[in-house]
Write a structure and sequence with these properties.
- There is one protein chain.
- The chain has 14 helices and 14 strands.
- A hairpin with a 3-residue loop joins β1 and β2.
- It folds into 2 domains: 223 residues, Peroxisomal Thiolase, Chain A, domain 1 (3-Layer(aba) Sandwich); 153 residues, 3-Layer(aba) Sandwich (Peroxisomal Thiolase, Chain A, domain 1), CATH 3.40.47.
- Strands 8-14-13-9-10 form a 5-stranded mixed beta sheet, with helices on both faces. It has a 4-stranded mixed beta sheet with strand order 4-3-5-7, sandwiched between helices. Strands 1-2-6 form a 3-stranded mixed beta sheet.
- It is α/β, with parallel strands linked by helices.
- It starts with a helix and ends in a 5-residue tail after the last strand.
Length: 389
Amino acid sequence: MRSNLLAGQARVERIDMRYMGEVLAGVCRFDPFKYQKKKEVRIGTRAASIGIYCANEAIQNSGLDWDNLAKDRVGVYVGTTEHGNVETETEIYNISQFDYDTKFWSHHHNPRTVANNPAGEITINLGITGPHLSIGAACAAGNAGLIQGLQMLRLGEVDVAIAGGVSESIHTFGIFAGFKSQGALAVHEDPNKASRPFDIERNGIVVSEGGCLYVLERLEDALARGSQIIAEIAGYHINSDATDYVLPNPERQTQCMNKALEKAGMTPADVQIVNTHATSTPQGDIQECAAVREVFRGCDDTWVNNTKSYIGHAMGAAGALELAGNLPSFDDGMIHPTINVDRLDPQCELPTLVTNQPHNHGSVDTILNNSFGMLGINSALVVKRFDGG
């Protein structure tokens, strides 16, 4: 909620993880049975349930005449880091109780784990017969889903795109164990202070689940039906580091932001908010800050914040969720802070970094949303306020 972001209220808790005990996590609480039957939830995936909930809510909020819409002109583009891991780990655990006899293996395994699952389940739930894709772009996937939807609209392949990202990560011990083995899993006596990008004592990622899907249309179509337009996507870019499996490359991140601004026909000074990807890992935060400093050097009215300090890292949903956290700035002119910055790491120093207290900017017109991922995939999305023209 916007009020929590402006009040600096985080939402992280302790959960019990198989084989690991207590871990810190951002938990997505929603009613899966609002749009699905119990059987559908049981045979499908957690990631898809989150996606189905988000897609239905987005459509209702869009004001589309859904019943009379040509469903073959609707596309679904869902960014994700992983899916089906939750169900696969549970299936393996279950057959271990039967001496690994595969006759106890679920016949739902294959449709749960195919790459297109989250987007595909959404099409089944909503009767969408247009194209669907699950976009595998690591933790840049939320932005990548939006970019894919935008591109398909520009190509004329669809008239409506349901796009964004989802993540089921907190229900799989493999994610937590993997980050722990890397020394990148956050620990803190207070769960709500565990995610602390840019703070000198940050020690890793708080794993979160969640989802955020948007209804995208071409501007002329949205205007023709009298839609309440939240924002316009003005520019975007995706590139690759081509240097390391995990460690980011600030030179490529710099290039990604510059290219997105170039496509938007903007300069860095045109941006009022830079939402950072910073995950609270020691090296990752430093590298991104170096890239942001390079791009926005001398931009005294470009303010920098971070949303993971509230909710942790929602992986494939992160980019789309964090954009949603900043979009209300177009209406209220407020820039929510990065919280939990008790002692700023000198290597993360940014002249206009908003920490611990919101900044009342008065008027916000443009947001640049960073989202980066493992294997060196980078994304930057430039979104501007709709001016009614």
